[in-house]
Amino acid sequence: MKKIILSLAIIAVVGAIVVGATTAFFSDTETSTGNTFTAGAIDLKIDNTCHYNGGECVCNNDNVCTWNGGPYNGEPCSCTWLSKDLDGDVFFNFNDVKPGDYGEDTISFDLTSNPAWACVYVENIVDTDNTCVEPEVEAEGSDCAPTNDGELDENLHITAWLETDCDNVLDSGEEIIVDNKLLSNYIDGQTSFVIPVADNSDDSLRGNGVPLPQGHYCVGIAWCLGTVKADGSCDGTNVGNEVQTDKVGANLKFYVEQARNNSGFTCVGN
Question: For residue range 72-106, what is the model confidence (pLDDT) as tens digits?
Fold first, then answer.
């Protein structure tokens, strides 16, 4: 009996030694915490600054906007705003344009987070005689009808350029996109068209395959109802009564899409 008890005791001691020995091996532990995937973002905001007949639409800290200078000095305006999501905002809203009138808008793209392809879709184009007042009928005859194409776009010259410094002025060296062309060249017979700001086409304003970078990017658009003279002034003496009451308008839709892993993007068809 004593031999049996002694044998069991020896076995227990040996077992304890073996168990203890297993905890004495060299070891190391490394832990990586907080592993996550977070989706990136593409967020476009638009701001605008507009000028009309020598006046600038300026907004104060309370976002109250008035014309500074020009024929409407001190009167309310709504075509200038800080970077934001568009909500019924319009860049051009002039309802009493006359020969010799002129203006300029600097439209800014504010792209956060990631480079992107960018397009401007010009949609729901309107180009009509609108109404036919007596002087307009005398100038046009039977061609004047409210639903007929108007002549305003045939007398409205447009210049557009890439605004590298976003200062609302066409400076030497800035790339001209549209060089003093009549608006009718682009909208006659059209209900919509697309402007590829940045895509994989030869028509891209930034060059084929060059995405819009993160940050601030500006385009200037100047217009003149008449002829732009050598000194840059707008001469309306050749604009006749055929443009009276005519209306030109469109919706502008801005679209951006991620550039990474998307090398074949073009604005046409998207």
Answer: 999 999 999 999 999 889 999 888 999 999 999 99
Give the model's pLDDT for residue 23.
57
Structure tokens at 133: 């007042």
259: left (phi over 0), alpha (psi -120 to 50) or beta: alpha
Question: Measured between alpha carbons, how far is 214 from 206 in angstroms, rounded to an integer?
Answer: 14
CA gap 48, 147 in Å, rounded: 32
Predicted confidence (pLDDT) per residue in 148-178, tens digit: 999 999 999 999 999 989 898 999 899 999 9
Residues 123 and 251 sit within 8 Å (Cβ to Cβ): yes
- Report the half-sphere exposure of 143 (CA within 13 A, side-chain side): 11
CA distances 263 to 116, 180, 209, 252, 259, Å, are: 11, 33, 8, 25, 7
pLDDT average, residue stretch 42-58:
93
- Find all residues with CB under 8 Å of 60, minimum gap 6, and list them: none
State pLDDT tens for residues 18-38: 444 455 788 888 888 888 877
Query: Distance from CA of residue 228 to its chain's centroid?
Result: 27
**Nearest 5 degrees, angle CA 259-CA 261-CA 201?**
50
Sign of CA dihedral 85, 159, 185, 151: positive
Helix (H) or strand (E) holding 216: strand 215-225
